[in-house]
Amino acid sequence: MSKIYIYTCLLFAVLILAAFVVACSSGSTNIQKDVKGKITKYVYHYGDRSVAPDYHRSYTIEVSADSTVFIVTTYGKELLRKTYNQNKLAEIEAALSTMDIKLKKEKKSACSGGYSESLREFVQDEVVFNGYVYHCDGDSGTLHVGNGDLSSVFKDVVPESVDSLINETMKYETEI
């Protein structure tokens, strides 16, 4: 065998090994590194468990430079929308920077009956981060939250009690 053939085989083996290492890495991406200070909107969504419509309440909190929008839905039907003229972007970014939030390789679950959370970050109209976690018999999804409570971070920027606002929609639903 010639030396060129041996070196070519070794080079090929190294390239395959490098590709394998990259493919098998955790895939974790910290949300704050590349876009810190550039985020123009955060969208947090809480997806309620599968229960009867009278009791099912999901909500979304959108935080941008000029407002915080709080939306309550039941299976896609909007029950409440409140807009607060305030800039809480820096507060959200500061709170999230203390948490170990990463994207991870998607883990699927056959479990049903849990609830979900998702977080999207935007720079202008471009989604720069999009992850979700499904809490049912453990956590599945693409979002890793290492420490802290994601829902509390977003609930804290809504000037009114989120739980009270959700309870108000319960009254509306039963009156219809």
Descriptors:
176 residues, alpha+beta, 28% helix
Describe the structure.
The chain has 176 residues and is of the alpha+beta class. The chain has four helices and nine strands, in the order H-E-E-E-E-E-H-E-E-E-E-H-H. It has a nine-stranded antiparallel sheet. Strand 4 and strand 5 (77-84) form a beta hairpin. It is globular and about 80 Å long. It starts with a helix and ends with a helix. 16% of the residues are buried. Mean pLDDT is 82; it is low at 13-32.
Structural class: alpha+beta
What kind of oligomer do you see? single chain
Largest sheet: 9 strands, antiparallel
Helix proportion of residues, in percent? 25-40%
Low-pLDDT residue intervals, each spanning 5 or more residues: 13-32
Q: In DSSP terms, counting alpha (H) and pi (I) runs of 4 or more, how many helices?
A: 4
Principal-axes shape call: globular
Largest sheet: spatial strand order: 1-6-9-8-7-2-3-4-5
Radius of gyration: 22 Å
Say how many strands there are.
9
How far is the first residue's CA from the last residue's CA? 84 Å
